Amino acid sequence: MGPVVLFLLAACEPTPPPEPEPTGPAGYARLDRATFNRVAVHQDLSLFWRSDANGDGEVSPDEVAFVWGGRVEPKQWVTDGSFTSNFAGAYERMVHEVGSGAPPDGPPGSEARRRSLVLRELDAGRPTLVEHDLSGLPAGEREMVARVLEAATWIERLYARQRGVAQIGAELGDDLPSRSLFRRNQGPWCERSGLADDPDCHTMPAKRDEAEQRGRPERHSGLYPASLQAEDPNFCDTLAKHPMADVLLSPFSVVGRMADIDLVSVPYTIAWQDDMHHVRDLLRQAADALPANEAAFATYLRAAADGFESNEWGAADEAWVAMNSKNSRWYLRVGPDETYFEPCDRKAGFHMSFALIDPTSVSWQEKLDPLRSEMEGALAALAGPPYRARDVAFSLPDFIDVVLNAGDSRSAVGATTGQSLPNWGKVADEGRGRTVAMTGFGADPDSLAAEREVASALLCSATMAVHTDDPGPLLMSTILHEAAHNLGPSHSYTGPDGKTAERAFGGPLAAVMEELKAQTAAWWLVDWLVPKGVIDEATARAAHVADLEWAFGHLASAAGDASDSDAYTRLSAVQVGWMLERGALTWEASAVAANGRDQGCFELHQGAIAPAVDGLAREVLGMMARNDVPAATTLVERHLAGDGPLVPLLPVIAERVGRTPRPSYVYAVTY
Ligand SMILES: [Zn+2]
Fold first, then answer.
1. pLDDT in tens, 483-518
2. Where do the DSSP E strands lie in 124-218?
3. Which of 18, 101, 340, 609 is at a distance of 20 to 30 A from 278, taking alpha carbons?
4. CA 301 to ligand 1 center in whole angstroms
5. Using a CB cutoff of 8 Å and minimum separation of 24, what contacts does 184-189 make?
6. Domain ranges across the chain
7. Cα(483) to centroid of ligand 1, in Å?
8. 467: CA distance to ligand 1 center in Å?
9. Which three-class secondary structure state does DSSP give residue 340?
10. What letter does residue 357 receive in the DSSP assignment?
11. What is the pLDDT of residue 230?
12. Residue 459's pLDDT band (cuts 50, 70, 90)
């Protein structure tokens, strides 16, 4: 396979005619910041107006960030601290777009309708900046950052090949919103609910020289032969029944077809050798640049580089779990890992997560490590017999401050906030994987304002007064949640019937119970840690409000089809429903929400939380200790779609949360 240029380089761009620099007082104050950032996405500019630092309402060169992965080089926007004429032209076109209003819609199948849907899809994600200034680091580490970011562009190219969209990317015309959508969604399709199934929502413009429209591109994975996918809609099942299924569906290989008949397994390193060798070389250069005190990281970079040559990932996994928050300030995972993106759920998608260790996690690890046995004893008492406290030895998760997510890790909207890897091999089989929780998402001023907006639409004034912009309380609750996955009846526990939760409850219910246990224990442990002096009462109260807001966020997705809901949504329903029934949370129908506009709001009664949560923890842990399937089924079913008090309030939650677009993260790194 020859190289295919996925993202056109800046040099290949059709250069728009230069436009005169605007004069007069209006200048660069004609667009407010939110509009600037939204329209910059429409026009695929890879620019983000970070903040109006000097408060003059005008965008200035030191207030913009240059988004990673864009088609325009930063120096084309700003040189010597001033905006270029290129920027001036782009600004005029943005003003023109806003002044022209929404583009006309058109009949189904028309190019006008397609263009209007593309803008709607883009607007469903609020561009949100994740920015790091690493320019103060020692030269060696800055060199490493440069090489790792360069490797990330090849990772995205590999991921595009896996998704079968690399060729489509090369065929995009000069329709800027469509190119922007292709870059953000890493494919030609719309993804937001209500748009994903619309046949007109895609990036492929009508061919100018043909009357016939080009329809939405079929989803053909790049991991299986196109002919197989076209002739057999159940090709995943067919492959699973194939005598060579184990080989064909192995995670690090592509299925190919020889002479249009025989299916063969082609290792990633052969299918995409050139791209993989680029990543290999860049990771080795990154390792060479690192100083001696980053030896653990350099070892991982070299082992991962070897994986891109050999397709053997075991040594990289060993080096990866040997890295931790004590021996490196960096976090990197690069290679093929998760399978959710592909139709058969078997092949590992290429991704990169590049981050700095968040030092908060180190301080929490130090506070909580000595309490592990005591926490296990407390949760064992809540569970009751036949569960007995075990010896627990587990590592608390590292918190990572993400610098860049690329490939399968870069979502169009939202972001993964926790991950446990690897999925295969010796490290996974022996339970020696590493768990991380991602921080930094949502810490920017725009996200904080959006969260306040959502919270003040749902909460009454007294509860809203406890809402905080400080990420600390929610972070603390997250670390307790992750710790609790290792406490009480867990994956390896067998109940009185001799079955694990997985076998007794079945996959989906077991997953809900495990998450419900972890999140209920997080609420419970917050109050348990106050008298121990580990946290103060104000932090505990703020954590409860933050956890409630987290639950509302998940419940907002449940108003459609409850049967579709994931484990977090289901556990949120149980918690909120339970607290409504016990008066720890009340719906004040006659009160006005803290935003002063919405009729009806939620009030959290701090004094009633501890007894309600204690009751729920005993129920949930007890059901898991006894493998009580009927009781667990009733508990989980009634709060989302049954007769629970939350059910009639779900549409209200969905409407108020849904008013604020979800974040679409863009990354900017200075080094
Ligand atoms: Zn969890």
1. 898 899 987 788 999 888 888 898 788 889 999 999
2. 125-133
3. 340
4. 29
5. 184/41, 184/122, 184/125, 184/412, 184/664, 185/121, 185/412, 186/156, 186/159, 186/160, 186/407, 186/410, 186/412, 187/160, 187/163, 188/216, 188/217, 189/216, 189/217, 189/219
6. 10-128+175-206, 226-271, 445-666
7. 9
8. 23
9. coil
10. E
11. 92
12. very high
Residue 71 CA to ligand 1 centre (angstroms): 38
Strands 585-592 and 78-79: unpaired
The amino acid that residue 47 corresponds to is: L
Ramachandran quadrant class, 600 (left: phi over 0; alpha: psi -120 to 50; beta: rest): left
Ligand 1 centroid distance, CA of 262 (Å): 43
Q: What is the helix, strand, coil percentage profile of the chain, to 5?
A: 50, 15, 35
From ligand 1's centre to the CA of 485, what distance in Å? 7
**How many Å lie between the centroid of ligand 1 and the Cα of residue 515?**
5
* Strand runs labelled E in 358-397: none
Q: Whole-angstrom Cα distance, residue 133 to residue 403?
A: 10
CA of 550 to the centre of ligand 1 (A): 13
Contacts of 48 (CB under 8 A, 6+ apart): 37, 40, 64, 65, 66, 67, 127, 129, 666, 668
| pTM for the full predicted model | 0.83
Distance 311 CA to ligand 1 centre (A): 31
Kindly give the distance from the C-alpha atom of residue 420 to the centroid of ligand 1, in angstroms, as a whole number.
Answer: 10
Distance CA 548, CA 657 (A): 13
In the numeric block, the tokens 């949504």 are attached to: 569
Tokens of 356: 């700095």
Q: Which two tokens stand for residue 210?
A: 């043909």
User: Ligand 1 centre and the CA of 537: distance in Å?
Assistant: 25
Nearest to 545, CA basis, from 510, 580, 585: 585
| Token code pair at residue 311 | 């397709």
Tokens of 306: 């070897």
228-264: per-residue pLDDT in tens? 999 999 999 999 999 999 999 999 999 999 876 789 9
Which structure tokens are listed for 238?
């067919």
From the list 551, 516, 553, the residue with the least C-alpha distance to 636 is 516
